[in-house]
Design a protein that fits this description.
The structure is a single chain. The protein is mainly α and 95 residues long. It has 2 domains: 1-47, Orthogonal Bundle (Arc Repressor Mutant); 48-95, no CATH class. The chain contains 5 helices and no strands. Helix 1 crosses helix 2 (32-43). The longest helix is centred in the first third of the chain and has 13 residues, at 15-27. It is elongated.
Length: 95
Amino acid sequence: MRSQNRVQTVLRLDNFLFERAKMTAHKNGQSFNSYVESLIEKDAGLVFPKLPKDFTVSEEILNLVPKESVFRRPSQEELDNDPKLAYLMEKNGLL
């Protein structure tokens, strides 16, 4: 969930925890900020698993979609701002 709308904040961390987080971020090839942001995204339920390309949707689920519905592809901005929508679109092979 990367957004242009950013808020600057201050954290008070135990020195050992801060150094450990910096070290882990560096080991993962991330900045400290990126590392902390990714942890918050995971904890907040904003990170969705990637599904294999051969994932199929059951007939039962497909039958729930009205046959006359018109599918409108969401814009990239809509996908960036709605990670659940992006996840569902990718999960169902619509991206």
